[in-house]
Amino acid sequence: MPSLKPAARLKxxxxxxxxxxxxxxxxxxxxxNGDEALYPEKWASYSKGLAHDGKGDVKxxxxxxxxxxxxxxxxxxxxxxxxxxxxxxxxxxAGLAFTLEGSDPQSFELPAAPPLASAWRAGxxxxxxxxxxxxxxxxxxxxxxxxAQAAIADISKLSDFxxxxxxxxxxxxxxxxxxxAGDLVLWRIENRSNVPDLQSGARLHDRIRGLVGCAKRxxxxxxxxxxxxxxxxxxxxxxxxxxxxxxxxxxxxxHFV
Length: 257
Hints:
Elements: H1 6-23, H2 35-38, H3 60-72, H4 75-79, H5 119-133, H6 146-156, H7 185-190, H8 204-216, E1 222-225, E2 238-241, H9 242-255
Antiparallel strand pairs: 1-2
Helix pairs in contact: 5-6, 8-9
């Protein structure tokens, strides 16, 4: 394509944007799971940050003030949401924003969450509890670790568990994994079937666990941690800020160990 003069390029870019916008017109149909109408007390509806009574139930007036703001989209109504304390809601108007990259955010359909009283929701809860119990067991040990084997057996018996499976059964390769092809790649990395050992013979999870070891010991400000031994490598000191340490620890534990 020949180079265009600035004015001509600006006009062509405008035409391309307009054509793309006209070709991408889709109104999403958002469906709920029925819980909001089923429970007048709003037990199963989002109420974080709103005012609650002594029993822990959200105050309906506070809940309705949030609904009013979401329906009108008016900044003044968002300012009037009745909160339960001094901590504000975090960017509650983010869903109203527009973008010039890709489709409009509200053109995408968001699947409804599992109903509160459903076996589907119960299955997710069971998985979450087992995940907490196995937080310190690396994926590469799921084939042999007794606690992982107990989790696999228990989750496989659930009547409506919708996590990934192999031949209808949860396995060491699918336990706590997501639905995309990339979610299952980590198994191959952990077991070194496709990826050679990293530096000094350390496997991926060994290095991540070393980072977590540093992060767990970090406190306020910058601190030195001299006991982060990683797969036989020499002991070394790591200086980690407390905020970064907490982020590394949480993300590493959630995704790797």
